[in-house]
Amino acid sequence: MKFVKVVLLLLLGVGKGPDLLAASGGLCVAVTPDEIQFRWDLEVPGKVSIERLSLATNQLTADSAEAQSSESVVVWRGEASQMRATTPRFEGGRDRLFAKYRLCSADGKEALGAPQYVTDFRAVLRGKNPLRAGASKKGITCLLDEADGVALGCAQVNENIDIGVLLDLQSAEAKAHFTYEGRTIGLRPAGVALLDKHLKAAHQNGQRVTGILLNNVRANTPASSPLVHPLTDPSRVPIGPSAFNTATEEGVFYYRAIIHWLVERYTREDAVFGLLSGLVIGNEMQSHWSWYHLGNVDSKIVIREYSAALRIADLVTRSMHEQFSIYVSLEHHWLMSASEDPTKGFSGLEAISGIQRISTEGGNFPWALAFHPYPQNLFKAEFWNDRSAPLRFDAPRITFHNLEVLPAFLGQPEYLFEGKVRSIALTEQGFHCSDKENGEEEQAAAFALAWKKVQALPAIESFLYHRHVDHPQEGGLHFGLRAHDGSSNVNGIGKKRAIWSLFQSAGTAQEDSAFAFALPIVGRADWNNLISSKFEAPRTPFHESDKVIYDFVQARDSALKENVQNVARKLVGPEDEIQRPGLLQHPMPKGLGRLSFKVEVPSEKEGDGLLLFEAFLNHEKSTGAGFAVEVDGKEVFARSLKAAEKVPAEISLKAWRGQKVTICWIVDALKDPGYDWTTWVAPRLVLRKSLTP
Predict the structure, then answer these.
(1) Which of 139, 217, 234, 678 would bridge 242 by S-S if both were Cys, CB 3.0 to 4.6 A apart?
(2) Per-residue pLDDT tens over the stretch 127-140
(3) If you classify domain 547-688 with CATH, what class do you get?
């Protein structure tokens, strides 16, 4: 496992991180009813000071991947040998639990460790009621009929909680409100009433509820709203789910205020309003363009802002209740990204390693993982054939096919919390019912195998199947236990599918007899030995060491096309590794096919501009084709390739430093265009810093 860890960190370009002392910041922060308490283990002579910093990241622009420093306030100064200090917890109505603290030299000019958050809540009186802990793993998302949920034996459900539906920040006199830190905060009665209704019904039905905390931003949402992150442009939000505003003081205030209200209202021992067991923070954060919108930004910014939201949620909830859970939300792309644009998405592995690093630096806390292990192809239920989900820690995807990779990965020492593997909740995943003759059988068989694997993995606490009923606006996907009824009502409940009765039998004495039909479909003789503990060694995928300043595959729509049959993005390489993007440029039967791009070459001051690519004749039946590259009409590369032949190239553009040039990619069918899949693999202009002065 240690070897795997080191390899993956190298693949991601992540260093080993700070030493143990720096990782703890040299400071431990605890909270009592009246004080913030500090202790440290640094032996330094003379005096030291402790600074308080805001929770807001002050990340107001996308220019930097690092959060900007906020103003600090010295809360204590004294002899380092004391190894202990305290400061009052409250300052007026403000709770200073919600801050981060840094140990510094006496004059404050030298930081003696990373900023630390409160991580010790033992002295605070907190709720202890179990919030439906220990419930069966069987659950459903988007439940449209309570009686049907009870008949199915659902022990768990989810609840989407949009903070904008609850908070009324526009009305001068809101119809409902609550008080937090001396401020009156408006609520929308209809939003509160609907949430009460759903949570009370779930409680009456004995169901554990996991909340999905969302911040939906629409085109008509005022950009000035404290709920809107400064990097989120409401006019560009594609779907709705957006980042929480962790950048400004007001944004952080309302974010923690609504979480406080949720925990206070829905963890009461009398459960008069129902119970909430935990909150998933946002949705599928590594695919942020669609599901945690921050605009076109670097992955480091997304990870930093999301980690801030996660930490703030931990401070609020863990100071109020011992059993309340906070979850990171990830979809099934692991070492690969769902987006070809790095400013719109990145890998789940980069996300989880970044969150782990940041959380450790500020003082480890018990975040859990909400994961969505959909099949490789959402339209194909048969995940047992998923080739992009091998048994490796560097798998491109994690689906139900290789689900055991997830708890094993989190079982590595650096990911543990207090020596234990973090809980995993499967909060959204389903299987498409195709129009094939055996479509319902395949869908049901997929659930059977997935359920058996989940039952065999103790670290997985829940399996919330998505969804109860097909949604007519879900891109043609039919995940439902029931079909849609075909009416204009998006929530129209139609007929039961075969998966309905199978789901009902899961976790009952009838399970094995009901599941038996699935064995030949999934290619098994029995349900034994479903979980593998033997993983393959990681492979070394391509890792870009230079800064990419122009990606020709991404820019393909801007090219001037001449005499080509087809231009398309084509992934190259085995499915069980990270495939590289290629520019497929199929030639015409006669003449040269040309793709021309206008590109600015870096100046001498910036560094060396290099054109990198591989010319690849990507079909074994081709009779051969020609490849060439021109820069402003000058040929810089020319080769004739045989079938399946690949040639790498690195072209210096020093002669065109600081100029805007035309780079032309040229292909020639030669004699026969059949099977001429002429492909430029990862064609890109990179900036390489010169090693010479």
Answers:
(1) 217
(2) 999 998 877 999 99
(3) mainly beta
